[in-house]
Amino acid sequence: KKIGQEFSVTRKFREMITAVQLERRYTKREIAEMYLNTVEFPNSTFGIEAAAQTHFGKPAKELNIPEAASMIGSLQAIYAYNPRIFPERAQSRRNIVLRLMYDRGF
User: Fold this and answer.
1) Measured at the alpha carbon of residue 75, what is the angle toward residues 72 and 77, in degrees to the nearest 5?
2) Where are the domains of the chain?
3) Are 75 and 96 in contact, with CB atoms under 8 Å apart?
């Protein structure tokens, strides 16, 4: 079985071990970069570069803060926060991300 298919204490223990191993080997920035380069975004786009091109027509490094917040916000539920299908939901989620960023001093 894949680790994502197990629902048990064993699964949680494996996830914890994996997290510790990742944090020993990579910086938090490197882990975030690896995640963003492989995670699925709305419309079956994988990685932040493909998602930025698909949704905004530009490279990820050129996204402005609201656009980046929209991308990150969609990760919580890629279908429910898909801006092409549910633009109001996507905007609401983006605003939550922006508020959290502001509250945390970003």
Assistant:
1) 140
2) 3-103
3) no
Query: Mind listing the pLDDT tens digit for each residue in 80-102?
Result: 999 999 999 999 999 999 999 99
Of 74, 39, 80, whose CA–CA distance to 55 is shortest? Answer: 74
- Give me the chain's average pLDDT, please: 92
pLDDT value, residue 95 = 98
Query: CA–CA separation, 44 vs 79, rounded Å?
Result: 10
13, 85, 96 from 50: Cα distances, Å:
33, 18, 23
What is the CA 30 to chain-centroid distance, rounded?
Answer: 14
DSSP annotation of 81 reads T
The band of 11, judged by pLDDT with boundaries at 50, 70 and 90, is confident
Higher confidence at residue 7 or residue 54? Answer: 54
- Domain 3-103 class? mainly alpha
Residues 6 or more apart from 103 whose CB is under 8 A from it?
Answer: none
